[in-house]
Structures are given as C-alpha cells and as structure tokens.
Amino acid sequence: MAAANRGATGWRANIVLYAALAANIGIAVAKFIAAAITGSSSMLTEGVHSLVDSGNQLLLLYGQHRAKRLPDHEHPFGYGRELYFWAFVVAILIFGLGAGVSVYEGWQHIVEPEPLADPWIAYLVLAIAFAMEGTSWWIALREFGQAKGDTPWWQAIRESKDPAGFIVLFEDSAALAGLIVAGIGIWLSHELADPRIDGIASIVIGLLLAAVATLLAREAKGLLIGERANEGVIACVRRILDREPAILHVNHVRTIHTAPDRVFVAVSADFEDSLTMGEGEALIERLEQELKQAMPQLSSIYIRPEKVENAQEVVAVG
After folding, report:
1. CA–CA separation, 315 vs 318, rounded Å?
2. Considering only CA atoms, which of 219, 173, 175, 198 is closest in space to residue 49?
3. Which residue numbers delimit the Cation efflux protein cytoplasmic domain (predicted)?
C-alpha cells in the first residue's frame, strides 16, 4: 500500500517526463510534415496532439521545479501542491487544445472533404511514431509499476499523490490509441474512396482525448483540494500511538498531502491525567521523533491532548 504513496518525484519521474518530451517533439514534427504532404485530417490532429503533449511535459517539469521550493513565511508547509495545480492545467490543455482542435478539424474535413494523397508517407510516420510513443509508454508503465508495488493498477492511480507518473502514462496510452485510429481512418479513406472517414477518425481521437482529460482533471482536482494519506500511513500512526502506555485512546488521526512525498498529520489523543505538563511535552516530542523515523514523509506532526468525550463532541458538531 505504501508503494502507491511513494510516487516518482525524484529522478524516476524525470526519466518518464524527459522520455515523453523527447518522443513527442520528434513525433509532432514528423506528423505535421506528413499531414502537409498527404492532407490527412487525422494526421494533422495527431500532430496537434503530440505538440500539446510536449507542452504538458514541460509544464509538469516546471511544476516539479516550483514544488521543490522551501517553506517560507507565506507558505509554511511549502510549495509542494503547486505541482497539483500544473497537473490540473495539463488536463485542461488536453481537453481544450487536444480534444477541441481534433473535433473541429475532423468536422471541417467532413463538411469539406479533401482528396488524400499517397498514404504511404503517413503510414511510415505512424509506424515511427508508434515505436517512439510505445517506448515512452513502456518507460512510464515500468516506472509506475515499480512505484505501485502490489497495489492493483486502478487503485494505485486513485491513491497516487504524484500526478507526473500517471499523467504521462495516460497521455501515452491515449497517443497510442490515437495512432491506431488515425491509421485505420487513413486506410479506410483510401479503401472506400471516402475522405470523410479520415475526418471521422479525427473526431474519434478528439473524443478519446476528452475522456482522458476528464479523468485526469478529476484526479488532479482531488489532489489540489487536498487528499489524505493512504490507510497504511494512518494505521502506522495509530499503531505507534496505541502502544504508548500513557495514551489511553487515540481519538482521531487526520492527514493531508502537502506534496507528493510530504504529509501533514494532526492527532487527537487522550493522555493519562497523572502526566505533568513537562512529561506530556517530553512524550509528544518523543512520539514525533518516532513517527518521523518510521515514516519520513511525515513533514509536520501535530499531537493534541484531548479527552475522548470532547473529541467525540467536536466530530459530532463537524
């Protein structure tokens, strides 16, 4: 379970992002050249798709850089969640530019179909793009697979607090599917002598991108608003506190991610009445050290002595 929380915020994430960026820039240039030669709507759409993906990788790299800034007076918990903001922007760009341009371009080619030129250049570019995109996809899949551990794939995506890994994975998956759709669209256009089919393929690619963008926006929104740590982290905090004899009851453990690899935790616990203030302070300090040693991702820990009945009243009111 902890694997879903690890994320790939270090060099692993950069490998995924740099591989995707290099692939998409090269593919975008090739697709635009092929679209200009063949007049293919779906090829032009795929070029725009790759160009948008390239910009997305740059935004995620920028977000990672900004998220590493140290805490200051205005942002005492740091800037880690700025990465979540840029992840949300990426989802909007995929929807607005990628999906929007694809659907518009497809509709234009259905209303005003243009005869297609020799398709073999398009097929060659699609094959090269599929190989490059597939390499980027495999790197993203491998890195996310290592990060998730034994956690099921969909659960790992839902619980992941590092958007860089799963965004690239979804982008590359959509790109591979789009290449297949573009190839089928070009082939059917020539086989049936109907250039409008290529426009339909462009619309299908746009709808595919819209679905991916919606899914990514939903995940990014949850991270931006603030999500708790996974159950494994919460259970570990409770386990450490429960074995302390001076703590009668752990009322609640509330967590929130301030970055992919940083967690703020607030604990309410019922302490022995016989503890003096000095003993209580020493106990809290020792517990904080033990918690950080067990889970380095706990960047900020707040432990509040509180009677069980008082804590229950607060929960009821809240």
Report:
1. 5
2. 175
3. 236-306
130 to 12, 96, 123, 156, 229: CA distances (angstroms): 23, 24, 10, 26, 37
- Per the CB < 8 A criterion, the answer to whether 40 and 122 are in contact is yes
Q: Where are the beta strands (DSSP E) in the chain?
A: 247-259, 262-271, 298-305
Architecture of domain 3-225 in this structure:
Up-down Bundle (1.20)
The amino acid sitting at 210 is: A
C-alpha torsion sign, points 238, 240, 245, 247: negative
Q: Please determine whether the domains at 3-225 and 231-317 fall in the same fold group of CATH.
A: no
Close Cβ partners of 315 (under 8 Å, ≥ 6 residues apart): 252
CB of 186 closer than 8 Å to CB of 177: no
For the chain, residues with pLDDT lower than 50 are 1-13, 314-318
> What local confidence, expressed as pLDDT, does residue 311 receive?
63
Q: Judge: domain 231-317, CATH 3.30.70.270.
A: no
Q: Where are the domains of the chain?
A: 3-225, 231-317
Q: How far apart are CA 155 and CA 226, in angstroms?
A: 18
Backbone angles phi, psi at 212, to 5 degrees: -65, -45
Strands 298-305 and 262-271: parallel
